[in-house]
Every structure is written in structure tokens, then in C-alpha cells.
């Protein structure tokens, strides 16, 4: 028995990893916010824009009907098709003011007002309102903000999510299940960015380059912008923004960059095509893709300080880890607000900047949308503690919308102190009209979130088959709970069935605050059945028995078991569940969603303030940035009555072995037409697990925690690292079988990409490892291709 | 060869068997104690019963009784049956349930000759 233990520990490690994964994700994500109130949120939200704006506190429907199916969240009003353009235009009008900063106010109000009145028609109304002298300007603006053709995926990988729709699909087909066995490393590039000193143990680079023309553009963990030759891996240039290690939030992460070509600039103008990144010390930086020189026309000589308007600067509390979404020339970014520190935390404000000038186009502060639209008045800050967006938004150039997967409020596990606005918007997908900066619709995935179920995945845009042979512009929204929703892009209306289920109990701590119902997807969920005592695990009967006892001692009523303080509660899935920042891939030809996921519980307890004080649990502004703690593992939640302790991945408190049985993660193909599972397989082998910590090199599939997404190709392959076994693998799309793999020296917790140079298809991954996943850290970027001839 | 012909191997068997008895008892005690707690909490009865079985096995080993083998066989078969009933053929779920008990079974079986000798001597 003893012998076995080691295995367990390995597994444990794996689990840990998982947790880590989760955690990271969480970390980033998580900011909890108030849950939204019931379903209606959507409606409210939806039209909302207006409402929200007008009366932040009066969430419309909010209370209305808890029971009502939140389902359709979005309200859609009806702005169907036509709307978009109209909206755009109209909106534009409204928007234009930005240029003339001053008028903005008036204009906006006008716009808003109208919008409020009739969301749908807002667009039209607005223009009218504006009309007066603005006609010309409007026209000009309209042109400038007209939808531009988007670069296509294939030879290039122009966006972080592959194509503009974030489908992570490539039409390349040179590499197939038949020849993938010959795949070999073409070159390896080192970013040179490795942790030193205080940064050790805090790296989780998650580096995913984009490929544009002959170059790969990427950012390292500490935000060094780098361009390399896509064929040879030789460096073209680099720009180091000199980020201080104390700015590292949950982890040193830069998931990627965005590339934007300004239509209004002459071909040979500097920064005609620019790369824009957000940094962990909260800057937005733009550089010329050809030279790496900062764009002097952008912000302050190429940079924008995102701390502006946020409040007192506490390094590590406010950080950008995701690439901005650029829509109609406006670069939209949120930020990661380190979870669980305090109710009085940096705002979750979403800001849109002109991608050429860096000028603030709008700010969407869900706590005070009107007042903060053009930034906070002197001496004020954006509304503190509001739900933020740490993950990647998706741009919809055609509709002029940007889809924001919001997280929770800053205090994740306590809901009673949240504002109505927080409750309305928390953990929702929100569509913002980039021309007006106002929400068009929203869809809430958790009401009054007290589980840190931030939306972590970038949403994917697709043409959803409507059953009549036609298609509807839609968005696929995966959640950490595992639910997969498909929504109408224009209206937010659910296109697949959404249920609103009664939760088992609202518990004893906040029985009147927590929602009595929660939304679920009745179309597809990655979530497994609730845990039972027999699902407890260990390496031997004794540690398994200990976990069974813990199971019996904990509060657990299934999905959405509310937090408890007198004993632990089991949260399943944990915040590391479902789909996370790696997001899904979508193969339109095969009609398949490819989703990798985690299946791991957390074991949590709210810690009464007095006890937390005795334990010395303090928020980041009192104890400094400790960084890299697992999300929720002793977070102060200052301002609320409880701190929180999360045992992410629920590992045995004595042995460290996971308390629940594998698999801890998998990958699944889902039929887009039916929502049915085509295949589903555990992801990850036991090769790094073994007795006494010695890797067994056994090929047994176990299903490990994984973090990072996949790429699906026309060649019939899925490429994915993600799992903590450090394998980079190719999976046959048809069967789910792994047909090729390569052992990485570091953890493959990054999204792979594929592209073509000189007629050769390359597949690339930047296995930087992940501190919480407990995989080795590195700075490699590895390109693969088939041998010549 | 020398060992095989050694007529006085009894002392070796004596202390080795005692150690085994102690080990089995150390495994059985937490199973019995924690298992009883689990029963009180409304959980599975397996652990408490298995723990009780191991403690009796330990006592029998200490007495050099061949019955230890037979009782452990019973516990082991019961474990296999219970494990299959709980989780079927889910291999990873079977790991904590059957691996350690099976390893212990093999170890106990290795002691059969010692117990056998002891038994014969006792019979004398």
C-alpha cells in the first residue's frame, strides 16, 4: 500500500495541477460579483443598455422572476437583423461625439435615452436625435467605423482564436491522420523570458502567437513583444516593456496579442499594421509589426496606462493577461482583478480605445454607465469591486459588437453586499455596441454567483444551422459549470433550450439573497452527475476512507450547494470545471464543437472574520502582493463577513492525493445539430505519475487536469497540449483517438496554432508550463512540420 | 540450499510473522476506527468490517495460525465483490479498493510456509 501512495501523490500532483489550472483560471477569472439576479437578468440586461444606464440600480427585471427561466436571456428585443447596421450607424452618430469630447455628454444622453426607450429602435432614434449639425461628421464617422474585411485564417493565424470568429479552425489539410506520424520539430525558439528571483513560482505564460504574413507575433510571460520568422524561428525584433515582477497577479501570463491594420493610414505609414498587447502592469502597448517600434500616435508615445481612473495603484491587483478585441477600429479590454481580496477592489470597467490614436472611445462601468462613460470625473474612480473580464473578448466586426465574458464581483463567495447592478451583470456574456459603448444584450449563466464561476472561455461565433437549411448568426458560450449555450448574436436570445432549475437549497448564511433557481443548458453540458460517497478516491483504502468521511462531514446537496462556514462544503464542478480560457474549437465542415474540460470538485469553507484575522489572512493592499497563491486558498474578502478557503481540486488534507476518482479532465466532440456527444475521451496519460514520484512512462490514459485549448484542422486532426502529462498530441477528429504525440519538456498549457509558409503546414505550441498546474516552466515555442519530400 | 536444509528456521519465521501481524494490525485499526466513524455518519460499512477482519487476521498471525490465511482470503474476496458492486469495471476507481489489499494478500501468502511449519510444530 505504501508503495502505491507515490502514485497517488503523482496523481495528486496531477490533481493539484488541475487545481492549479483551475485556480489560475479562476484567479484570473474570478472575480465574483454579485450574481445576477435571476434570470431576467437577461431581459433586463438586454435591452438594457438603456436601463442599465439610466438606472443602474433598478435592474429591471431583476427581481422579477427568479423562477422564470432565465433562459433566454437575452432579451433581444427585437432588433433582428436589420438592426445591426442601423444600430451601427445610429450608434455611430452617438459615438462620434467622442471626437469632440465635450459634446459627448449630450450626445450620449440623447442616444441613451432613446436607446432606453426602445432598445431596438434606439439606433434609429439616436441618429435622429443627433441630426442637427452633425450630419457630416456622422457620415465621416460612419465610414471610418464601417465594418472592415477581416483577415482570413489559413496561411495566417491572424487572431488569437484563429479566425475573426474565434473558431480555432484551420482550412489547412496537408497534415492528416495518415501522415501525422511523420510530424517532426522544424525549429524551437526561446523567448528568453524565464522567472528569476521573486517571480519564481509565478509563471504561467500561456503564450499563443498569431501569424501574420511572414511573422509570428507573440508576447512572453512578462509581456516582451516578440516577432519571429514563421518559417525559421529566427527573431525579427523584440520590445521589452520592463514589467516589474511585483505586478504579477495570479501568474505571469500574456495569452496573446492582437494585430490591427488601420484602413485610414497610408500603406507606408509607421504602424499601418500594429500589434497591441495588454500587460500585467496594466498598460496597453502598440508597436509596428514590421519594426517593433512603439506607435507614437497611440496614447502616450505608444502606451496607455490602464490604471488611469482605477484608483490607488496596488501592484498585482489589476492586470491584463488577454489580448484586446478590436472591433471597427476600437480596441476593447477588460482586466483581471485579483480575486477575493476586498469588496473595495479595482473596477471591472471595460474600456474601448481608438486602435490608432489610443484615445478613450468609451468606458462601460456597469455600476455607473452614464457617469463614467468618458472616464471618471476628476478625483473619482470607476465603480469599485464590480465584475470584471479577465478572459478574451470576441469581436464581431459585422454587427459592431464585442462579446464580453464577465466574471464575478471581487468578493466571489459572499453575495449579500453586492449592488443590484453587480447582480444584474455578474457572470454574464454581455454584447456591447462598440460604436456607443452601450450594452445591447446580456445572458447570465449564474445568478448571485458565490462559486467563482467566472466565464472563462472566449466565445466562438458561428453560423448556426436553424433547421431549415439556413443559418443564424450565433455565438457559442461555454461555462465552467460545463454548460454550452448557443445564442443569437444580434439579440442574445437562446437558440438552444435553456432551463431554469430549482437549486437544492439556498443554505443558512444568505438564504434570502441567493437565487432559488439557476440556469442550465438543456442542449449540452460537460458536467457529470453529482458526487456520491463511492466517488471518493485515494491510493489505498485508508486514504479513500478518510475522503469518504470528509464527504459525509461536508455540506453537499449537489450542483450549486451554497457556501457554509461551520463546515466545509463541496463545490462540484469546482471553479476549475468545465471549459476555461483555452476555449472551444469549432469545425463547421464536420459540424462539431471540440471542447476539452476539467471535471474536478473544490472543498471550500467560509472563514468567519475573527478567525481569518487570527490566521492573518489579509487583502493584497495590506500584506502586499504575495502572488501565485491558489485562487481562493485563504483570500480575505475584506468588507464581507467571511474570508474564503478553497481546497482547489479537493485533495486529501493528509496525503495530498485527490479525494475524487479520475478522470479529472477530458475532451469531447459535440454534434452542432443535435447537441449530442459524438465521442468523449479522458485527456492525459499517467506517464508523469508513478510510485515514489518516478514517472512511470506508462501510456495508460487517466484523464488529467488540463488548461489550454485546441485547434481543429480540415486535415481531420485536433492538436492540443493542455493536459499535465506534458504531451502535445494530435487527435483524429472522427474517432477521438490520439494518433500522434510528442513529449514536451514543459507543460503545454497554451493554445496551439497552425499556419502555412512556402506551401508547408506548420503546427506550433509554446509550452511555457504553469505554476499552479505544477508543470515545468519554460520559454520554448516549438514548430512542427512534415519532413520535406 | 542452506536455508532449505536448516532445521532451525523457526526463529526467523517467528519474528517475521510477528512483524506482519503488527503491520496488519496497524492497517486494520484505522480501518476499524475510521470505518466505525463512517458507519455512524451513514456511510459504507465495508471499511469497518474489513478493519475488523484485518485485526482478527493479525491476531491469528500472532498465533501462527493458518486460519489467518483463510480469513484474509475471505476478506480479500469480500473486498473484490464489494468493489465490483460499487464501481464495476472502472479501473481507476478500483485502484484504491483492490490494489493495496491484493498486495497485502500476496505478502500474507508468502508467509504460508512459516505458518504451516508453526502449525506442524504446534501439533507436535
UniProtKB/TrEMBL annotation, chain B:
<feature type="transmembrane region" description="Helical">
    <location>
        <begin position="15"/>
        <end position="39"/>
    </location>
</feature>
<keyword id="KW-0812">Transmembrane</keyword>
<keyword id="KW-0472">Membrane</keyword>
<feature type="transmembrane region" description="Helical">
    <location>
        <begin position="45"/>
        <end position="62"/>
    </location>
</feature>
<feature type="transmembrane region" description="Helical">
    <location>
        <begin position="97"/>
        <end position="116"/>
    </location>
</feature>
<protein>
    <submittedName>
        <fullName>Glucose dehydrogenase</fullName>
    </submittedName>
</protein>
<feature type="transmembrane region" description="Helical">
    <location>
        <begin position="69"/>
        <end position="85"/>
    </location>
</feature>
<keyword id="KW-1133">Transmembrane helix</keyword>
